[in-house]
Write the structure tokens for this entry.
Amino acid sequence: MLSVNGTDLFYERRGKGEPLLLIQGMAGHSLHWGEAFLCELERDFELILYDHRGLGRSASHEGEFTIADLAGDAVALLSGLEIDSAHALGISMGGMIAQELALGHPERVRTLTLGATYCGGAGARFTDEGVVNALAGAILSGDPVRRVRTGWDFNVSGPFANAAGNFERFTEVAELYPVDLPMIFSQLQAIMGHDTSARLPEVAVPTLVVHGTDDQMLPAVNGEMVAGLIPGARLELLDGVGHLFFWERPERAAELIREHAAAART
């Protein structure tokens, strides 16, 4: 645990190499990265994994916060660990946090990887209403199995969702540290207030944008928009892949991040 900004954050360090800060999405904790993806990354990086305030193994938290506040937690974590700068990977809500991190503290970010994320503004496309309603119904049902299964089905592609063993592996992670409703609503409120679209042209760190073409949570048009707004950003679209691209294609996702970091060194 590390005390930052009035709360205690759980963190873990694993692997060897240059530091890579992994920033999870809405309702996600550090185990949601999936062991296959982490094992691929830790051969080349020292991974800095952490749980957002009020989630996973971090301390409970009450009250409102913004995406910028969560970026402040990431900066404070790096400072507390005496890490001057790190590669940063943020997915979904974590990608929004990573945007604020790169905009507000560019000296702390060696490279930026934004996965399956959103910047707000004209042209951005949030989750379709039908998906939102189905997820809300599952969350409010009080049925934990329905909640996890519905989330799974919308977060990965159909073939991957139904392939033997995949849902069972995800369920093992999801059931460890369930997120309470107030925290889900607090995170959603922060997401709804996020809009970096006018500022993304100011991002001055090497940026990779990764998005699955079958993403139902945040459609791929968002990745295209983010990459188009950040000078020199590289866009990688993964055909037929859903929101949790690092579960569906862990080897390819890790390879992209590895290549991105290497290119920045030359």
Observations:
- The chain has a mean pLDDT of 96.
- The CA atoms of residues 11 and 111 lie 21 Å apart.
- The chain is about 40% helix and 15% strand.
- The longest strand covers residues 109-115.
